[in-house]
Amino acid sequence: MRRNLHIKLVLIMVLLIVSLMVVVGAFLMNSVTGYYINEFYQQIADAFGQNDFVRDLQTVTQEGEDGAAMVKEVLDAYAGILGVDRRDRNFYVLDGVTGRCLGGSATPPEGGIPVTPNISSALLGGRGFDSSVTADYMDAAIPITRGGHPYIVYILDGRETARSLNASMFSLIVEALALGLIISILLSFLLSKTMVDPLQRLTNGIEEVARGNFSRKLEITSSDEIGQLTESFNAMAQQLETTIAAVENERNKLDTLFLHMADGVVAFDRAQRVIHSNPAAARLLGRAFTQEDTYGELFGDLFPFEQAEAADGHLAGSRTVGGRFLELLLAPYARASQGGVLVLIHDVTEQRRAEQQRKDFVANVSHELRTPLTNIKSYAETLADGVGELPPEMEQRFLGVILNESDRMTHILQDLLTLSRFDSGRSELRLTEFPFAQAVNDTYQAILMDAQNHAHTVELNLPDSLPQVRADRERVMQVMMNIVSNAIKYTPDGGRIVLSAGQDGDKVWMEVDDNGIGIPESDRGRIFERFYRVDKARSRQSGGTGLGLSIAQEIMKQHEGGLYLVDKAEPGLTIRMELPVCGPREEDAHEG
Ligand code: ADP
Asked: Is 546 in the pocket of ligand 1 (CB under 6 A)?
């Protein structure tokens, strides 16, 4: 840039100087010639304005004289006032009729005096006083009469004086021009120093900003327009730095959000190519994306790209991938040339499952309550219809059923209440310290009678020392009782039940193993669900509600422990419960 501007400056200077010199030179040289011509005609006119001279020219001095010679003689005498020097300026006496040269201060050129426009004027009787600035001579032709014969006094000037004056003026102008050129080149250097250098610095600064280095401040060296420009530039660079930092920050936030959000996002450009996708999208759709993937391949079956791009708001679709329900929202993200379509993938599997569970739960509750109610109603009706007619043993049995069924309903309602307390977080643990081995032993003692009624053998394996645990003893016992009574219930009479306990790091555990009916592989994952029972009839018959294990698992969760099925090959089932020795760290649990 510097070189360009510098050359331009030099060229402007040179052009200025040359054009100035040419104009001044032409004007001067023209003026000099014009002045010289004016002087010439003035001198001639003055001379011919002198009476003596005109009288001497025209007055015949003696009879029969040679008129032309006499005129020449007078002109010789007055050569001074005519400025005739006989070298550059000469006079000639011409015949007033033919224009032929009759004599003069110098020998006429070979071939005679040419008939100039002035001579033509004089031949016609007028004074020829005209000369062009550009001609290389000037002349004047004045008609006179002497002795009745017309003559023309013709003065011819070769303009040598004007020419030599012009020549020396020309060389002067050339010298001035050369000097002017040197000065202009020096001046342009100076100008370039004061103007181009700051501009060059500004250009370098702009280039650095364009490369992303906003922190560089340009030095302000003057208070002129360039100084102001530099100051504005510095302010702009700083503003740009702040704005870009803010934008960058926003982008980082969005990138992090984009990367870690649970919903999948895939963005397509106008050419329908994938330009962005997050890990969630790949996970949900079960495939990785490349830039070669197109909208048509991925979502073309839902809506055509043009329809998604022109959508007002968004379009909604759904899809099932690998057993998961996906909700897809398609929306255009900008309508300008940079626009495209954004696809948001939302996994609604859990939502749907929860909805289904809620529906199942309501259906189960109604069903579980309806069965005992129907029984109560029918037995009560039979009793009412046959008051005093039924045998007392039968009445006794019917009342017994009614009582049993109402107990069962109360039992279900209590269990539901307990679960509802867990769900709403209102159930608090009453934490105390108690020996874990003692709790296991108490459970063993409590079920022994029932087990013996079913001819089960019950083994208890307790290590010598088990620590004290911090837990809600009543609830823990409830869980233990639940799993041991399940073992009794779901093991055909004469079975074998083993209760073991132990410590594993900062946890204690109890396992209940039976050789009963066990649980088919397909049901193993579901037995902790509410109301889930492998064999409904058997469970109901034995007074089960299908809520026992759900409640037990909730209690263990509250203790930050766990309740699991243990994999085993033999028939029967092993259930394991685990408790942290120090109790839960949850704040809502309070000391009992
Ligand atoms: P229930 O009141 O029906 O016993 P639970 O929640 O305690 O309800 O148990 C859920 C289901 O798990 C039972 O209906 C039964 O099918 C199965 N189950 C629980 N314990 C055992 C076990 N020891 N052996 C076989 N099946 C079991």
From this structure: yes
